[in-house]
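The material for today's practical consists of a large collection of protein records. A record pairs a protein's sequence with a compact description of its fold. Instead of coordinates, the fold is spelled out as a row of discrete tokens. We will come back to this pairing of sequence and fold again and again. Here is such a record, shown just as it appears in the course material.
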Amino acid sequence: MSALFNFQSLLSVILLLICTCAYLRSFFPSIMDRNKTGLLGTFWKCARIGERKSPYVATCCVLMAFSILFLT
């Protein structure tokens, strides 16, 4: 089943995207900050969400890991 049709998989992909973009921005800030608009601006926006809402993102990652490990 595709991640687009399974809601739990879609949430996992979005959380992984947010965490990956925030992690990569910590190492390469100039690459992320250069592309703030367009399709590549999505990665900049995900990095900003990961930086500013990090306690909420971390909580969601823990809850997602718990649900994948124990409920599925």
User: Anything to note?
Assistant: The CA atoms of residues 24 and 30 lie 11 Å apart. The chain has a mean pLDDT of 85.
